[in-house]
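[agent] plan:
  1. take the single chain provided in the ticket
  2. run structure prediction with default settings
  3. attach structure tokens to the ticket
  4. add a short note for the reviewer (M.T.)
[agent] executing step 1
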Amino acid sequence: NLQNDAVEFIQKEEHKAYTILEFTISDTTNAENFKMYSDKIKEKLGVSNIEITGNMNKMYFKILKDDMPKQSFNIVNCNPTQMLLGHNLDYEPLFWDMDKDTNLLLAGATNAGKSTILNAMIINCLAHQNCKLCLIDLKHGAEFFDYRNKKGVIRYAETVDQAKKVIADFTKEYERRFKLLRGNNIQYKNYRQYVS
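[agent] step 2 finished; step 3 output follows
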């Protein structure tokens, strides 16, 4: 039971949207034991939202603050090369700057939010008049079906054969542009000044 488990408070770390309480715990228990008592812990601390995690001999209570103001962002007025992805736990906006980071690999476990991020990126792109998208959804349209007829979506594929065609056409355009750059002695790093 909670009274018999050796727990020692280490530190409190304050953030805008949450507070972290860090403890050491004895070898005879682990954070999973405390998750069973999360309702009692919430009641004792007088909070409604708490996450309990742990590793080795440490345990963390992450207490989310319910009164954090939600912010809204006008994505149309954002820099066209900065893509608003959402916000962090301190409610500060998170951007992907395509000028600085031209490539992106998005990975994560099942239900980690990969599709949510991709949808945010697509909506952000579609908010800008000059954005053109080629969408490939090999889940037979489960993710991107609603975007297929949107202005700005110039190609859409949901089967392997359709995807091969989109990629082949994309490759042809890529080759055409590089020939054009090379033919005019334009270095790749300076290409943006020639894009209207």
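[agent] step 4 note for reviewer: The chain has a mean pLDDT of 78.
[agent] ticket updated
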